[in-house]
Each structure stands twice: as structure tokens, then as C-alpha cells.
């Protein structure tokens, strides 16, 4: 079996990271982005699918959302957790889609102990009815947020989870503090391109440390897969034994380079390229 030795003093056993997330057919986000991120960062990636999302080019590229049956999700997780029972301690939670999915995943998580539970709190899928979406959001906050050790909300998600309005970096920091106080998890609240100013600003809070992470913006439009890849990169770094703040910094650098090398298509959005660091290293 191959061995990895990324940091002095760390285990040389191949790190493993699981993503429980939805499939996104164009390859820019969701489970596809997670698996590519895990691979680029030297972790053995595993995927359990929760739903299938495909954009509809005949309907203004809106989402088409199909949930995976709860029993099928449970079956996937049973196989994964049994196969890697002695080695799997890091999971990244992405799009769930329904309250039934959340209940199934929450139950499976309780079958073992976890060192790292990274929650990317995807709220309100565009392919859902508003009432169903709100039920899903409430289930996520009640059943998954308390299990998280690290949370990566974007501006909208941070507003929902904190009950505040965010328009400045100071607002983002306050929201991150509230989410940390309510969950106990480390929080990387993402301002990205949504906040005014020349920099893409994220805020890290873990109760003992607060740090502003800023890099120059690369355009003013969000790029598909950036949020998924950031949370997956955090999970990969944590799986390798990196401390939470450094994992956040490494993940932000990884995604910044992925945005720089983004991929265009006939869709009205661009997608991050998780191999950006490899391309940059060759330049």
C-alpha cells in the first residue's frame, strides 16, 4: 500500500476522506469536485451520493434535482463504514437535499466516532419547492450542525445560520462567532466576491483564534465548485493531520489557484479546476 509523509511527525498511512454529497453533472461542483480535490491533495477519496443535480439548458440552466432513496444512501454508507472501519475518521458533508436524507446521514454518522466532520451547509436547492427547502434547512441545523467540527458557510448560509445580516467583513466575523458559539465547531465564513472591496475575504473563528484570510479577487462573479472544493480541501487537510487554521489557509490557497485556472463551457458559468496548483507549478 502506498505511504504518504506530508508533514514531519505525522502518520505515513494513506489518509482517507469521505464525502457525502450530491452529483453535479457538469463536473464543476458537488461530489465530482470533492473527489478531484481529495485526489489532488493526496487523500484517498470516497463518495456516497445523496442526490443527482443536473442543470437544465432548456430552462435557463435551472437545477433539476432528484434525491437518492434513503435506503440506497444507507447502503452506500454501510459499505463504506464497514470497509474502512479502522481508518475512516474524516467526512465532508455537502448537499443533502431532503429531511429524509439528513436523517439517514445523521443516523449513519452515529455508527462510529469521527475526528473531523466538515459541514458545507448547502441551503435551499433551486430545484426544490420553497416549503420543502425550508424543512431541509431546519433539519440540517437540528441534526447535522451539532455533529460538525468545522463549518464552511458562504455569506447567505452564514446569515441563515447566525440570524444576522452580512454586508461587511465585521458582519461576517460576527456571524462566524455566533455560528461557532451555537455549534462548537470551527467556522470558515466565506465572503468571497460577495463583499465589497478588492479582496476575497473569509473569516476563521474557532473560539480561541480569529483570523481574516484575504486574497485579491479574481473577477467579481462566483465560480462553480469553489465552495464545494474549499470544504473538500479543508477535509483533506484535516485528514492529513493539519491543524484547523492551517487547513483553512491551505484550502483557500488551493481554491484561489483553482479559480485562476477555471474552465469555461457553453454553460453561463465557469468551473474551478482542481488541478490548478499542478499547472501553476509547471509554469
Please give a structural write-up.
- It is built from 9 helices and 9 strands.
- The protein has helices spanning 30-40, 70-83, 99-109, 130-144, 155-162, 169-183, 226-239, 244-260, 276-282; strands at 16-24, 44-56, 62-67, 90-93, 116-119, 150-151, 186-192, 199-205, 210-216.
- It has a 9-stranded mixed sheet with strand order 3-2-1-4-5-6-7-8-9.
- The relative contact order is 0.15.
- The protein has a domain at 16-153 and 224-274: Ribokinase (UDP-N-acetylmuramoyl-L-alanine:D-glutamate ligase, 3-Layer(aba) Sandwich).
- With 283 residues, it is α/β, with parallel strands linked by helices.
The largest pleated sheet is described as: 9 strands, mixed
What is the arithmetic mean of pLDDT? 92
> How far apart are the first and last residues' alpha carbons, in Å?
32 Å
| CATH-defined topology of the domain at 16-153 and 224-274 | UDP-N-acetylmuramoyl-L-alanine:D-glutamate ligase
Brief overview:
It contains 9 helices and 9 strands. The protein has 283 residues and is an alpha/beta fold.
Q: What tags apply to this protein structure?
A:
283 residues, alpha/beta, UDP-N-acetylmuramoyl-L-alanine:D-glutamate ligase, 9-stranded mixed sheet, 9 helices, 21% strand, globular, disordered N terminus
